[in-house]
Every structure is written in structure tokens, then in C-alpha cells.
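Sample pair:
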Amino acid sequence: MTSTRSSQLPGFYKLSIDERLKRAAAAANLDAETEAAFRKLGGLELDQANHMVENVIGVFGLPLGIATNFLINDRDILVPMAIEEPSVIAGASFMAKLARGGGGFHAETTEPLMIGQIQILDVPDLEAAKIKILERRDEILAEADRVDPMILSLGGGARDLEIRILPETPVGPMLIVHLIYDTRDAMGANAINTAAEHLSPMLESLSQGRIHLKILSNLADRRLAKVNCTIPTASLAFETFSGPRVRDGIVEAWAFAATDPYRAATHNKGIMNGVDAVVIATGNDWRAVEAGAHAYAARSGRYTSLSEWGVDETGDLEGSLELPLAVGTVGGATRVHPLAKACLALMGVDNARELAQVIAAVGLAQNLAALRALASEGIQRGHMSLHARQIAIAAGAEGEQIERVIAKMIAQGTIHIQFARELLDREPRES
């Protein structure tokens, strides 16, 4: 990331689409070719799509917006977000603005270690097999390193072996070998899977069992992103809600999610609204990230909140988020999809660990936006005001009609498609 970028773009939402792009491109120092990628509808040509997946018949688009105001590890970042849900980008941007008052977001990541799992069945002596494999640990790791010389040259490669015995399963005991592998700036699925398959004959011989599955785990609990922020209590005040009231309401709302899995599921969905939107925009595997995050939320045996919120010694609100984030900046769609490449350039991230830090910060910001709304005016007021645009368009509003219908629905406090249609029916008589 470079320090010359700015994520503070006052009045950005008031600009036309073309003006927004020009302003963002200037703020992020984008070259003309990168800027042009954002102007291409969908960011992907049909021929390019045809080489990415099977049976292509078209390209499915999502709105791509920019979250502003993010200060992460003292660096300004403009964050691309691909999402269809209203209020997410606005909410994250506003919370990032509040977080600046407390120094912004502070993020860190662990080494990019992934886990490849090798399932061994029909092992005659589980303990003896475990000992034999561990005795040959160094030889096995060296063999794994032969698979991908490129990752090895970049400082990655096999790091360790773990052996797990599952004594009781529906099909009998299992010996599970975990290959711990540093994938550097790649998400790493292909490297992990190839290495696991390469080791299978050797492990089968040592264990005297039968190798079955050879596959990475999406519970990347060795590849964590952690972020925290402090929000000055005074900045939380708005309308009739005092800062302390909003602060305490946020902590109380979080405590509900920390205790109850039914609430935690929705709470964490709000976090993933922010996380997934950036993961998708950068061409990463949002399904893998979702699976890992929710599994991590249940690692204690009980599903709970991924975030934590409390009050610090000065009385300000403090929050933190920790989750697995297996994302890459090389390989896969991140380097094939032109718009994914442009989104990485917009952020100015240099490696996968920096990308994970940005994603975690957006997740925490979006979590705060949802909690603040729930703890004060209620989630529907802000969300439905933005949702009104979709309702108006779905009802058939066009051009200037859209804004008139939105204004009337909000004024009446009635935002649903039937009312929008009634308003449209009156339009000719009122105009």
C-alpha cells in the first residue's frame, strides 16, 4: 500500500458514476488502463468468461461500489465492494469515518498457513502408524516441497505435519494427516491439493492403511486476520441518542450474539456482508471464506460471535474481530478477471496479508454499522430508506419518477411494492 492515497472523498455519493470513477481513480493513482476496467460493463468479456468456467452463456453482474474513509494501519484505503444489498457500503463508510477519530483500524495477520488433510482408513495400528509417520516428518516435508518450486522460491512450502486419530466415526477409525503449508500470496487450494496427493503413496506405505480423501481444509485457523478499533463515545451520538446510550446499546447487542447462536448467526452475517463484498470484488473464493468463518465461530463447540465489543478504560467503545481469511493476490480469478485486478490496484495492496487486513477491517466496520442501527433507531429505518430505491424500480418507476416515489414512500413510512405501484398510478394526475 502507498501512503499518498486518500480514502476521504467528501460528497462522493452525490457525484455521477463517471465523476465518482474519475475521483476514485485520481485518489488511488490509477493508470488509464486500470481505470478503463471499471468502465467495462461487468468487467468481463464473454470470451474471458468462457475460459473461466463451463457452459458459459453470459456474465452476471453485481453493483460495484467503493467504501470510503478507511484508515488501516495508518494508510488510507479505498475499498471496492461487490454486493447487491443496500446500506452495506454506506454503513461501512460511515463507521470507517467514526473509527478515524480513534486512530482508524489496526490489523494484523498470521503467516499464510493452510491445512491439507489426508484421510487414511483401515489402519491396523493407529498409534504405531502415527509414530512411523512422525519419525519420517522431515523426509515427508521435503517431498512435499518438490511439488511447487515456485512457492518454495518465494519462501513458502511445507512447514509441519500433524497427526489426528479419529477413533469413532460412522465407518470406523481414521488416521488424519494434516500437512501445514505456507502458500505465500496465493489462496493455495491447488498447491495444497497437489502436495497432499503427491504424499499419499508414501503415507499409505508408512501407515499400512488405505488413503481416501486428499483435500485442503477451509477451516484455515492458522491463517487468521485480526483487527481492532476504538470509537470515541461522543462521535456515536446522533439525533436524540446520546453517545453513552448508543455505546452501551452496541455492547448489549453484541452480548446477545455472544451468548445466543440464533442471534450470532445474523450478527455474523452482518460481518460477512462486508467481508464477502471485498472478497468477491477481488476475485477470491467467498464460499471458502464463509465456510471457514462460520466453522471458526463454532470452534469452542458452540456457535458464537466472531467479533467482540466493550468499553475501554477511558469510556470509549472498542471492538475487535478475528477470523480465518484465506485470500490471495496471485493465481485464480484474481489475475484472470480484469476487474478483480483493477480492484486490487484501487486498494493498492501488495500482498495477500495486506488484503486480508483490509477485508477484516471492512467486516468489523459493517458489524458496527449494523449494531449501531439496531441499538438506536432500529435496522429498518436506514436499511429500508436505501431499499426504497429497489422497490421503486421494481414497481416500474423510471427516470425522475424514481426519486419522487422514494421520497413519498419514506415520508409515509410505507416502503413496499404495492404502495409504490399506487404512487405510480397517481403520477400522471399529479404531474
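The domain at 12-109+224-377 is CATH 3.90.770.10 (3-hydroxy-3-methylglutaryl-coenzyme A Reductase; Chain A, domain 2).
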